[in-house]
Design a protein that fits this description.
This protein has 10 helices and 12 strands. The chain is α+β, with helices and mostly antiparallel strands and 325 residues long.
Length: 325
């Protein structure tokens, strides 16, 4: 987590404002193990309220302004409260202000960003007693898996795995620098809840699919680590989670095909969807054409969508301002 500076206040107010990035996970075959931060960010301000205040949301702008919870059940506040309790402290009244640029339920890590925002902000307000590993463990408890919260916290491309030990669950991570590429996005107007996308997944897979996945994820990590995209199209070919998810989101296969035809080196479903993602090699001018082709194909299939071009992000959660801490 980077720190962009501290603002001194003359009052007793305590507040911290963070920038927390979106993330994409899986990247094809890296199911629940690969995640990458994107330069599309939410801004989260957490402050300690006055005595007698209730915890809640002061204001939400952007994504979710009309739908996210505004009481203590808001995920940012639940995460912040979990950190206080982890430290054995009674949470004070907490108030949050959110400016959300990450679309909800589109496979771009909006809930992971909310969890990291609440945890990191609360950690700062309480004196930064938890290190990165402690924050990641708490975030994984909240999210259920680390593939989105890890890059939201650490930035870059993160490989993560859950290990069990006598001391409890540990999150193993290896962070790589973000790959040199543009990221073309097709963001459908229709959301796709992670729970619905997980319900269609098989509980058992064949040996052939397991071997296929192992080989592809190894090729994928090598390609992204080196910037050599010669085999990226094949490396991002997933047979574990994307085929069943195409049954609940039919544009998946034709949109990926459109991305490859327009010049992408590889394409996939972003997380559980509904966003689709394509990697376009650095130095080419095809990223906007790829995003436009993807959105057009999605719309033609009956699912209106918006094109976007972003980049991977080296930083995770960044402190923008501090007051009184």
């Amino acid at each position: 987590m980077a720190n962009a500076g501290k603002t001194t206040a003359s009052s007793n107010e305590q507040a911290v404002t963070l920038e927390v990035p979106a993330s994409t996970s899986n990247l094809g075959p890296g199911f629940d193990t690969l995640g990458m931060a994107l330069d599309l960010c939410n801004e989260v301000t957490l402050r300690v309220g006055r005595i007698g205040d209730a915890s809640g949301v002061d204001h939400i702008s952007g994504a979710g302004a009309d739908s996210l919870a505004t009481d203590e059940s808001n995920l940012v506040l639940r995460a912040a409260t979990a950190l206080y309790r982890k430290l054995g402290q009674t949470p004070p009244p907490l108030r949050v202000t959110l400016h959300n640029r990450i679309p909800l339920a589109r496979g771009l890590g909006s809930s992971g960003a909310a969890a990291i925002g609440g945890l990191v902000a609360a950690n700062i307000l309480t004196g930064e007693h938890l290190d990165e590993a402690g924050l990641l463990a708490l975030a994984t408890d909240l999210e259920g898996h680390p593939d989105n919260v890890a890059p939201a916290l650490m930035g870059g491309l993160v490989i993560s795995a859950v290990a069990e030990s006598r001391d409890g669950q540990r999150i193993l991570t290896h962070r790589l620098a973000p790959p040199p590429a543009a990221i073309a996005l097709c963001i459908p107007d229709q959301p796709l809840a992670t729970e619905a996308a997980r319900r269609v997944l098989p509980r058992h897979v064949s040996l052939d699919i397991a071997v296929h996945s192992l080989g592809r994820v190894a090729l994928l990590v090598a390609a992204l680590a080196t910037g050599d995209y010669t085999h990226l199209r094949q490396a991002m070919d997933d047979r574990l989670h994307q085929p069943p998810r195409a049954t609940v989101f039919p544009p998946l296969v034709p949109v990926m095909a459109a991305a490859l035809a327009a010049g992408a080196a590889g394409a996939c479903l972003s997380g559980a969807g509904s966003t689709l993602l394509a990697i376009v090699p650095e130095g080419t001018s095809a990223a906007h054409a790829v995003a436009t082709a993807m959105a057009g194909t999605c719309a033609a299939a009956g699912y209106p969508a918006q094109p976007a071009v972003v980049r991977s992000r080296d930083q995770g959660a960044v402190v923008l301002r501090k007051i009184g801490v």
